[in-house]
């Protein structure tokens, strides 16, 4: 495989651009998790620590956002601080990219838009916390995250801890199958539900090492398939929450969203914020731990992928 040149509309940090050009391992990181997924200041601390984890594992971190209308790959400490603290930062999925660029705004990118920008930069691996998916009640609301369609059309491997049960996990897996997205459990037979290692649903396929995942990703793309690969990496046992504890919190958060009439792009940020409040911060500790674990695994996949080029 040849190295790629980033799309000219992107501002790529020099360290990241150099690593991409030389085919060294790079890991993309999203910014909606910073701006709309966790409270300040823990969000900024998390963002910095996750970058450090990626570095320690031998890869270059590239957090992605839109800053002053410019899609930016690889952020400074000040830029992470801005994303974590400025209430004017918009939540930007794929459909919002042209608007935020043309109006010169700041945007925090979701899994979908981070994937797309990572792909345009030539980055093959992306680490996040949880994927968006099919919302509960989607059979009438039709609220299905663009994360799923993006996984079907952009060649980036995405390491997550599965999806939260704020979503309909079973329907999310069905939709991923329909879209032709490979979902591989890393050292697990069960698809993880973010806060917990279990969901009651099997993963469609399983691998046990980062090297095996890298080989599968390479094989997928060598066949000419255009899809991403969803790598489901369960939260470490010592950090997981008991399903009984988190289930009550999520049920309450969903009821509150319903009562408040929250819909559309606001629903996921609303639920994430409510879960932190209702769990007295317990869920936040688990969230941060699983993102760091994903960063270690994602960096290992990126290292193995770079070695296979
Ligand atoms: N799920 C989480 N944490 C998150 C998100 C989802 O557990 O931070 C964010 C991600 O950025 C994801 C987005 O891509 O929410 C999905 O939003 P929507 O459902 O509006 O597509
Ligand atoms: Mn939605």
Verbal overview:
This protein has helices at 14-21, 32-35, 42-56, 77-85, 97-102, 111-121, 138-141, 146-151, 169-178, 210-222, 243-260, 267-278, 282-307, and strands spanning 11-12, 26-29, 60-67, 70-73, 90-92, 107-109, 125-127, 157-160, 183-186, 205-207, 229-232. It is of the alpha/beta class. The chain has a single domain, classed as Indigoidine synthase fold (3-Layer(aba) Sandwich), CATH 3.40.1790. Strands 1, 2, 3, 4, 5, 6, 7, 8, 9, 10 and 11 form an 11-stranded mixed β-sheet that branches. Helix 5 links the parallel strand 5 (90-92) and strand 6. Helix 3 runs parallel beside helix 13 (282-307), helix 10 crosses helix 13 and helix 11 crosses helix 12. The longest helix is centred in the C-terminal third of the chain and has 26 residues, at 282-307. The termini are close together. The model has no long low-confidence stretch (mean pLDDT 97). Manganese (II) ion binds next to loops. Manganese (II) ion is lined by residues 143, 145, 265.
In short:
This protein is α/β, with parallel strands linked by helices and 309 residues long. The chain is 46% helix and 14% strand. The protein has one domain (11-241, 286-308): Indigoidine synthase domain (Indigoidine synthase fold, 3-Layer(aba) Sandwich), CATH 3.40.1790.
* SSE series: EHEHHEEHEHEHEHHEHEEHEHHH
- What percentage of residues falls in helices of 4 or more residues? 40-55%
Report mean pLDDT, rounded to a whole number: 97
- At the fold tier of CATH, the topology name is Indigoidine synthase fold
- Ligands (ions, cofactors included): pseudouridine-5'-monophosphate, manganese (II) ion
Low-confidence stretches: none
What would you say the CATH architecture is?
3-Layer(aba) Sandwich
Number of domains: 1
